[in-house]
């Protein structure tokens, strides 16, 4: 039986550094990492520049953009379909929840506002977002009137939003869950629903039905705002908040530095050996920007910045290479 294991490397950073931040987002197109949004001080958006990190040269730059640039925001999400990046929601400097969907064409460096107002999902921040070859999916969290558990799909070909069936009370409204597409299903993993939770649900895209799944193995403790990606059939979970701060978003809770994988076929969790004692390990953190990425022939998880147990925002970048042997 093949054993999945991970190896972290801390990446150098050159060029125009964008500085420490959390509650931001990244999307990867080819060997370019696009970063947007975030905060250095709690709830204060830093800027609305689109920062670009080259995985080959390890250098940052600021994209020279045109079009309708999104205003600064925190708790925002990004996902890439082909060479186009989609940015949805977040919270502005006046702490208003937002619901605009923007696209960014990485070939022309042009921003476009696609939907807003009554079109598409209601206003929200600190939600989760993922994509497949045709659709961008948005799930959860902080809406105007509380935590959400609705699931929406934006068809990038037809240019239309569709609200998918609700999971009902079995999957409570939550923020900071893992959200991935695997095995023809959209997976909702853990999250914060007034407390850290450890349930796993999926929405079957063909049958249009929800199910809560029972997992086995060495499962992670309840957590939210962790970094995640899909590698093969495995949902990778790194870090996250395992105990919230009594100061809410103004303070740091207790964070994990653990690494787990959920096999979406066997529904079994595995705690991965990722050399915690190495100097390249990112350590405990949450509220990071993250995405699946490739370096050379290796697939893995890219983690950028986030919040530390001391409530300091971070500015480092790590790549977790995953392999089986």
From TrEMBL:
Top-level taxon of origin: Eukaryota
Annotated Pfam families: Kelch_KLHDC2_KLHL20_DRC7 (PF24681)
Keyword field: Iron, Kelch repeat, Repeat
Matching SUPFAM superfamilies: Kelch motif (SSF117281)
One GO BP annotation of this record: glucosinolate metabolic process
N-terminal signal peptide: none
Cofactor(s) this protein cannot do without: Fe(2+)
Protein name: Nitrile-specifier protein 5
Species this protein is from: Medicago truncatula
